[in-house]
Write a structure and sequence with these properties.
The strands form three sheets. Strands 1, 2, 3, 4, 7, 8 and 10 form a seven-stranded antiparallel β-sheet that branches. The chain has a three-stranded antiparallel β-sheet with strand order 9-5-12, with no helix packed on it. The protein is built from one helix and twelve strands, in the order αββββββββββββ. The longest helix is centred in the N-terminal third of the chain and has 13 residues, at about 1-15. The protein is mainly beta. The relative contact order is 0.26.
């Protein structure tokens, strides 16, 4: 009998009503924008004698934006040219088109700096082409150009 009384005294400790707790999360998102080069472009020589990624492969840039940001795309500049290259009158141009949230960001080849206002958008891809023409033509060898893209 004593054992039964002991068990009955402890029973309320084993049987308790269900309990709940709120688990909260908070944070402040500020305007951020990240750019990542998903695929570097490659250059080739077009039939018209222009060094261009349209004769190779375009570059692909991944963009993630929170808040309102400005995307700025500059025309290409040479990073390196072969020793026999002589610059004449050069025209450097960039073109791009957006996918997903950037669907309206289509830009034909231009030698001007372009800007686009972008809002919050999921991970989106910007396909880019770059080219430089030269009135004196091109020497054989390795060429490298870059396009500076900023998001702020």
């Amino acid at each position: 009998m004593r054992g039964l009384r002991f068990c009955l005294l402890l029973a309320p400790l084993w049987i308790s009503p269900a309990s709940a707790a709120d688990v909260t999360f908070s944070g402040t998102l500020t305007g951020i924008c990240t750019l990542t080069l998903s695929t570097p472009g490659t250059l080739g020589l077009t039939a018209g004698g222009v060094v261009s990624s349209t004769a190779g492969l375009p570059a692909v840039l991944s963009i993630l934006s929170i808040g309102t940001n400005t995307l700025t795309v500059n025309p290409p500049v040479w990073v390196s040219t072969p020793g026999g290259y002589t610059a004449g009158t050069e025209v450097a141009e960039v073109a791009y088109s957006g996918l997903s949230g950037l669907g309206i960001a289509n830009q034909a080849f231009t030698s001007s700096v372009t800007t686009r206002s972008i809002s919050t958008l999921p991970l989106s891809l910007l396909t880019m082409n770059a080219q430089i023409s030269n009135s004196l033509g091109f020497a054989a060898g390795a060429y490298q150009m870059k396009v500076v893209v900023t998001c702020s």
